[in-house]
Amino acid sequence: MNIDYNEMSNQENKEFENRARLLVKCPDKPGIVSVLSSFLHNHDANIIESNQFSTDPENGTFFIRFEYHCDNLQQKAVEMEKDFEIIAEDYQMQYRFYYRNVRERSAIFVSKETHCLLELLWEWQNGDLETDIALVISNHETARPIVEALGIPFYYIPANKDIRKQVEEEQIRLIEEYKVDVLILARYMQILTPDFVSHFENRIINIHHSFLPAFIGAGPYERAFARGVKLIGATSHYVTNDLDEGPIIEQDVERVDHRDDAEKLKKIGRQIERRVLVKAVRWHLENRIIVEGNKTIVFH
């Protein structure tokens, strides 16, 4: 039986056509929650979920995430956003409305190892990732049969440091052609150039097979084994031009001991990588993350 995932996506979009999210960042001061709640109430919106955080109640920064339902939202959205501009100006707010009937389109980059890709595809097939996977790009052919079996376009683009400029030009062309919103590096073992990263600020999610900041760069499991660590982990973060030092979204660890050689550490590490990357991607797609400098506020 062939499953039409695009049709499933369209049905889900219709189901959530009256649901939206609002994320706000601004200087902290009394009355912000009241003002925002009143704004939604005055537009007949019902708050479904609300999470907030302040770095310092007196001189800090305030962050909040609302999810709400509003009948006839598609007809009212423009008016609501225009009315909100006045509030935003008064309170120096940085903000964004997200509409749940508009799903982000994602591109997955992968190399030889497919465990993270497989986990993402599984979660997507289950309907647990709010995204349309537009394409998969790889510098190896390994994942082609897996991806094409699901009707997802697969592009094999060989990559190395000598042809990096041409490779990234082709990747950017494809990303723009497919109207991609977020890039997921599912163990894509290539360094991205500053020019590439600048096109997609805070929209590239990486999985690093180490509990950063430990063992930055290549070969972390071998180095972890040589160091005799008792915990190994994985880190998902947004990509910046500082290698493996972008804002961290999620991390996890597992305990190991002297009986575990480098290969066993890798096996355990792959399990951690899968779950950490999926969590980070899910939270990004659910608009649960606000980037603040080189840190993230994640509303679970």
Characterize the structure shown.
With 300 residues, this protein is of the alpha/beta class. The protein folds into two domains: 17-99, ACT domain (Alpha-Beta Plaits, 2-Layer Sandwich); 104-298, Formyl transferase, N-terminal domain (Rossmann fold, 3-Layer(aba) Sandwich). The protein has nine helices and 13 strands. The chain has helices at residues 5-15, 32-42, 73-91, 115-125, 144-148, 164-177, 194-199, 220-227, 262-285, and strands spanning 19-27, 45-54, 61-70, 94-99, 104-110, 131-138, 154-156, 182-185, 204-208, 231-238, 248-255, 289-292, 295-298. The radius of gyration is 21 Å and the shape is globular.
Number of DSSP strand runs: 13
The mean pLDDT is 92
Number of domains: 2
CATH architecture of the largest domain: 3-Layer(aba) Sandwich
Task: Identify low-pLDDT runs.
Answer: none
Distance between the termini: 36 Å
Indicate the percent of residues in helices.
25-40%
What is the succession of H and E elements? HEHEEHEEHEHEHEHEHEEHEE
Q: Major sheet: size, sense and barrel closure?
A: 7 strands, mixed
CATH homologous superfamily assignment of the largest domain: Formyl transferase, N-terminal domain
CATH-assigned fold name of the largest domain: Rossmann fold
Overall radius of gyration:
21 Å
Shape: globular
DSSP strand (E) fraction? Answer: 25-35%
Going by helix content, strand content and strand pairing, the class is: alpha/beta
Helices, by number, come to: 9
Overall CATH class of the largest domain: Alpha Beta
- Main sheet: strand order: 7-6-5-8-9-10-11
